[in-house]
Design brief:
The protein has 468 residues and is an all-alpha fold. The protein has 18 helices and no strands. The protein is globular and about 65 Å long. Helix content is 69%, strand content 0%. InterPro entries: AA_transpt_TM. Keywords: Membrane, Transmembrane, Transmembrane helix.
Length: 468
């Protein structure tokens, strides 16, 4: 749970003021999800009880969600389409987006159910996992704490490693542009120099303690990513070369696993979903057909499809691992793309790092009750320093993190939410014909598919890097 000294949480949100009396009564019953049969909790509304110092608006949350999902993985979408085929890529991207969005939706929905059962107003992802088992069937309760620790460790490893990879990505993009104009200094200005130079800027970014104040940073990131993607689209469409003759509509199924591994891990943002929901002024707005989650992921999916489709159509089987590598590197627009991506990824660092900070602070905050603010800043500084030192020590860290990402994101983003929903609705019921069970079996099978093939591709990437 996000805490005040961690920049975050909780003035009462008097939402009841704006509701008619009969609507308020309906809210207390909470019949939408048939949340609980516990009479004692029927008069407890977690959303009006939630206390936030600086709550985020729906637009702030949407901005964060877009930034979390529109990461550097989008640049690999043309390569993903190369593995699936031009037409198959469109349908498979929609499929992945629907499943990833649904799993995030499920996690938030289960949290809202458990708020009522536990009379709590906010929960982190590990706390949702623990509460689901604690309030589930008798056989599951003894595993509650172990499940929480597993989710906690997986989240921390994944996002801490991701932040270290982001540091390498920013340094690499900047160094390529700088060294283009300073070729005589290539031997002196190695990648480790550029990574080290990022230490202070990253510490300053990590010192932003509240998601409300990170919203403008996410807007800047979205702006620069938009500039980079806009110029890239110009290269794809405005310079000619689009041809259906050099692409394949549907690739053989043996090549599809690479598409799914690239797309899932590019689009997945399960770790930031609960921190965003916990900081919202109107948490119910996260869900719903036209809720923040669906709006954000719909926009993200459209951009992913456009870039993947046009990138593969432009370069065919010659498309590189990252589409910006296909651009003429000595052209000014291509260099602007690299700088824009570097700035966008730098601005994203704070949002991704927020997950790690939230986890670490909740583990140590009880030991620093006298001067919590000072302890918080020191903790953030040490964590960023370790993150940068890791990048300096292993600049080729990305393939290693691919293994952790493939393993953890499959578990965290697909398998765990399906399991949590089954346990949460154990007593409430699974709907007509137990449709929730059958739906979650399909999600679990898809998650296992992503786990196996994503991990396999990541291991192959490590072998390629170090055998070369």
């Amino acid at each position: 749970m996000v805490n005040e000294s961690n920049g975050g949480v909780p003035p009462p949100q008097e939402l009841e003021t704006f509701l008619p009396q009969d609507e308020r009564n309906k809210e207390k019953i909470v019949s939408k999800y048939n949340m609980t049969k516990d009479v004692e909790s029927a008069d407890f509304d977690p959303f009006t009880e939630r206390k936030l110092d600086n709550p985020t608006s729906n637009m702030d949350t949407l901005t964060h969600l877009l930034k979390a999902s529109l990461g550097t993985g989008i640049l690999a979408m043309p390569k993903a389409f190369k593995s699936a085929g031009l037409i198959s890529g469109i349908f498979f991207t929609v499929l992945v987006a629907v499943i990833c969005t649904h799993c995030a939706y499920v996690l938030i929905k289960c949290a809202h159910v458990l708020y009522k059962k536990t009379r709590r107003t906010t929960m982190s992802y590990p706390e949702v996992a623990e509460s689901a088992l604690e309030n589930g069937p008798q056989w599951a309760r003894r595993w509650a704490n172990s499940f929480r620790i597993f989710i906690l460790v997986s989240l921390f490893l994944t996002y801490f490693g991701t932040c270290s990879v982001y540091t390498v990505i920013v340094a690499t993009n900047i160094s390529q542009v700088v060294l283009h104009y300073m070729e005589d200094h290539k031997d002196v200005l190695g990648i480790r120099i550029f990574i080290t130079a990022l230490l202070l800027p990253l510490i300053l970014m990590a010192w932003i303690r509240n998601l409300k104040y990170l919203a403008p940073v996410s807007m800047i990131a979205n702006l620069f990513m938009g500039v980079g993607l806009g110029i890239t689209f110009y290269y794809l469409v405005g310079t000619g070369g689009l041809s259906f003759d050099k692409v394949t509509a549907v690739k053989p199924p043996v090549e599809w696993p690479e598409f799914f591994s690239l797309t899932i891990f590019a689009m997945e943002a399960i770790g930031v979903v609960m921190p965003l929901e916990n900081a919202m002024k109107t948490p119910r707005s996260m869900l719903g057909f036209c809720g923040v989650l669906n709006k954000g992921m719909s926009g993200v999916t459209l951009v992913y499809i456009l870039l993947g489709f046009l990138g593969y159509l432009r370069y065919g089987d010659d498309v590189q691992d990252s589409i910006n590598l296909n651009l003429e590197q000595d052209h000014i627009p291509a260099q602007i793309v690299q700088i824009a991506i570097a700035v966008a990824v730098y601005c994203t660092f704070g949002l991704q790092f927020f997950v790690c900070v939230d986890i670490m602070w909740n583990c140590i905050k009880d030991k620093f009750t006298k001067r919590p603010d000072l302890a918080d800043y020191i903790m953030r500084t040490i964590m960023v320093t370790v993150c940068v030192l890791l990048a300096v020590a292993v600049p080729t860290i990305a393939p290693f993190m691919g293994v952790i990402g493939a393993f953890c994101f499959s578990l965290l983003g697909l398998i765990a939410p399906a399991f949590i929903e089954i346990i949460t609705f154990w007593e409430i019921g699974y709907g007509p014909y137990n449709y929730l069970i059958w739906k979650n079996i399909l999600v679990l099978l898809f998650g296992m598919f992503a786990l196996v093939f994503g991990t396999k591709d990541a291991v192959i990437s490590i072998i390629k890097v170090y055998s070369a």
